[in-house]
Design a protein that fits this description.
Number of domains: 1
CATH topology: Cytochrome Bc1 Complex, Chain D, domain 2
CATH class: Mainly Alpha
Bound molecules: heme C
Strand content: under 5%
CATH architecture: Orthogonal Bundle
Number of strands: 0
CATH superfamily: Cytochrome c-like domain
Distance between the termini: 35 Å
Low-confidence stretches: none
Number of helices: 4
Order of helices and strands: HHHH
Radius of gyration: 18 Å
Largest sheet: none
Shape: elongated
Mean pLDDT: 91
Length: 126
Amino acid sequence: MKALRNAMLLAGLAVVAGSAAAAVDDDMKALASKSGCLTCHSIESGAPGPNGMAPIGPAWQDVAKMYKGKPGADTFLTRVVLEGSNPYGSHWKDQVSGLAMPPNKVAIKEADAKKLVKWILTLAPK
Ligand code: HEC
């Protein structure tokens, strides 16, 4: 009886955790959309860019894959997002059609950029 009750309790907790994660996803998608990120980025890998070219910026699942397990990736990427990337030192050469990312600090606050980057880094396909 006790085991059954514990199992039910655990199932309940899993549901709560699941919906909390979904709420975070919704918040982060809204923030990305409001900040203009989604004009150049898709969240899931494999979406084509304009006119069948490579996507303008890398899909965020690909970003998560590339930086997986790299210490300090969140701090580094927050700087890139705020200050823009260097067209002569592209991290995504030949994989994207955008030459560089413009500085986004006009569109997003540093704390929000950090939150968004941390979320992006969780998106690597399991
Ligand atoms: C005008 C198009 C554009 C917009 C808007 C844009 N990006 Fe980018 N983003 C790019 C391009 C192009 C790259 C690839 C840069 C490179 O080749 O190093 C990129 C790269 C990135 C990377 C990986 C950086 C790296 O060095 O590997 C992250 C993370 C990122 N963008 C997040 C964001 C976020 C968050 C926003 C919104 C606040 C945003 N981007 C808005 C075009 C854009």
